[in-house]
Amino acid sequence: MNQDALELFFGTVRQSTGPNDHPATPTFLQNYKLLSIYSVIKPPKTGNCQVLNSEVPKISIDDIKNIYDTDDVSERVKNIEALKLKLSNCMDNEDWEADSIFEDHNYFKSPTVDCVVFNKATF
Hints:
Domain Transposable element P transposase-like RNase H C-terminal: 1-33
Organism: Macrosiphum euphorbiae (potato aphid)
Pfam family, one: TNP-like_RNaseH_C
Helix content: 55-70%
Protein name: Transposable element P transposase-like RNase H C-terminal domain-containing protein
Low-confidence stretches: none
Order of helices and strands: HHHHHH
Radius of gyration: 22 Å
């Protein structure tokens, strides 16, 4: 029985952890999950594939947050008018649904600074 494929797999997981040559079990499992879906998510470099639906969501949660984040009344009014314009454009198309207008939540995307602070705060 040949173990080359198994050794290649473990070597790939170990290399993906960077300078950590001996990852702990949670790190190994996380990298295993990331590597197992990488080929599915990664777009092909060549081929006859093209994006069929390049439409981006029309309204994001950030658009709504921008209304409440500012103390400047004129800025708030401008953000409300921009949101009203987006909504009226959606209504003019007549082929919309609430799920197609609003973007999925994006509050799980933390900025890099927050990740670094969290990482350093745990030590």
